[in-house]
Amino acid sequence: MTEGFKEHPYLGNSQQDVDEMLQYLGLKSIEELYSDIPDEIRFKGELDLPHYKSEYELLEAIKAKMSKNITTREVRSFMGGGVLDIYMPALQDEVLRRTEFYSAYTPYQPETSQGTTQALFEYQSMICELVGMNVANCSLYDWATAVGEAALMASRITKRYKFIYTAATAPNREAVLKNYVVGANLELEEIPYDPTTGKMNIAEAKAKMDDTVAGIYIENPNFLGVIEDGLEEIIADAHEKGVKVVIGADMNSLALMKPPGEYGADICIGEGQTIGGGPLNFGGPLLGILAMQFDRRETRQMPGRIVGVTITSNEGERAFANTLETREQHIKRERATSNICTNEGLVALSCAIHLALLGPEGYKDTAETMYLSAHHLVKELEKIGVKRVFNGEFFNTFILDLKIPESKKQEFINFMLERKIFPGIPYSNDGENYDYIVTTSYLLCEEDLNDYVKAIGEWRS
Predict the structure, then answer these.
(1) CB–CB of 307/126 below 8 Å?
(2) What's the CATH code, domain 76-85+360-460?
């Protein structure tokens, strides 16, 4: 019997296994195995842990903890900011749970992963159709990392080291962008927005673009919910100066708005969670979208991988292969474009299944529902004297002018939660008074919208 060994119900090593391993190592005990750890830093005694539970007891304990969470199945959500409360049909879950997809990591050997590579190819094709461009990669981590990757990509293409972006960019995406560009020594500069409309200051944007600027990033609609105009003018000016234009698009809005590829954008990025990538699990998993207009030299600078279609050499049958792999695991490090190691393959597949189930008409219907719900909500709120902060046109997001003091912010949230409403995302320019960024998903019905208006009216009374 080996000293210090206790059999464990979930660990497969038997007494005989342990004896054989120690014998092979030339050791007499488990204690001897750890003899190189200084005695003064080794833990002595018993860990102060609660008594173990049976499987049933453990599940009940977990359920009790989870019951404290408030989810969007119990409370109506008016939150957005880049993610959205969505519905995943049963068929979508059923396909995703197939083991050949669910356990798949990445198609290192495409010849043995034709199902996975075809699924990713279909995803790329759908994204290209949505954004009006002709090449998309297999996905990135999320919208925020896509901003950083697009900035680095613009710098590599232009050999310039300044990147400008609008002040109406989501704070989390701005933070990731700032982090990404440090190692590449990119200088960042912000473009202000109009305090009345919430739109980018076009004159300022033009003034900042010169032959030192690699790219410009514009969200449309922006984080404030406002739809930018004058983009074709900005893009034409950018191209005259050799500046790459990156558009951050709300993927649902593209069912109703002109896609970035049609008004001249070079790169389009966005978030795939909102178009079926997955439910809201504490903010993830998410899905970064990145697409561009094909150019052999410039496309080589895309991060991640691209799946393409070809034919087999022997029988001429259709086959799918990794057409572009720019990770340092696959090519020389000095030629690699990004350290992105794992694309969100399963989430990209989820997105493709969702879009396929919706079809073009369903995709448009959900977008129209979001648009009409937001505009109905604004109209009803105006009737009780509550207006938007910015007067620019919007899709399904707007900022509600509430001016709630910092001291009453939590009280307001609790007030709305009592009425089973997530009110939106708090937003403040001065850190003292808060407005709310309100987003309508296609899951909200007319009763939900009216309850929101009623609750805001009660709070103000």
Answers:
(1) no
(2) 3.90.1150.10
